[in-house]
Amino acid sequence: MLRFWKAGFVLLGFSVLYFGAVQTADAGCEIVKATNSADSKAAAARAAYANALQTAEQIRRRRGWKYVSLRPRKVTPDPFWKAVRPVVTPDMLLKPDVVTSKTYAQCWKGVVVPYVCTAGATACGN
């Protein structure tokens, strides 16, 4: 009987920790997705990175956070000209992906512009 109570107590403790952490993470974070283009893959990735930083700063101001931190996050590529290219399929993506300490960028050859990249991140603050 004592084993039953110990096991129940341990499961209850883990569930409280798990659900408490999920609520805290959701309450203080947002997904950032930024797309930009350029004449080279590297320049497009840098531009998307800069856009992601600007978006994170806008989120910080809107939510009244004192600070914002970014973690890289793989997001669905977001093409500019959806009338010309509604989606980016996996076979269109140029490898390797561009991953920094703050963003995860996926790039492809554009139809209207030479190269396009979408950078993704999770922005958290307080």
Quick summary of this structure?
Keywords: Signal. With 126 residues, the protein is an alpha+beta fold.
Structure report:
Keywords: Signal. With 126 residues, the chain is an alpha+beta fold. The chain has one domain. It contains two helices and five strands. Strands 1, 2, 3, 4 and 5 form a five-stranded antiparallel sheet that branches. It is elongated, with a radius of gyration of 20 Å.
Structural class based on helices, strands and sheet pairing: alpha+beta
The overall number of domains is 1
How much strand?
25-35%
Q: Mean pLDDT across all residues, rounded?
A: 85
Number of strands: 5
H/I helix tally: 2
- Which runs of at least 5 residues are low in confidence (pLDDT < 50)? 7-26
Taking the sheet with the most strands, its summary is: 5 strands, antiparallel
Order of secondary-structure elements: HEHEEEE
Distance between the termini: 45 Å
Q: Level of helix content?
A: 25-40%
Q: What's the alpha carbon Rg, rounded to whole Å?
A: 20 Å
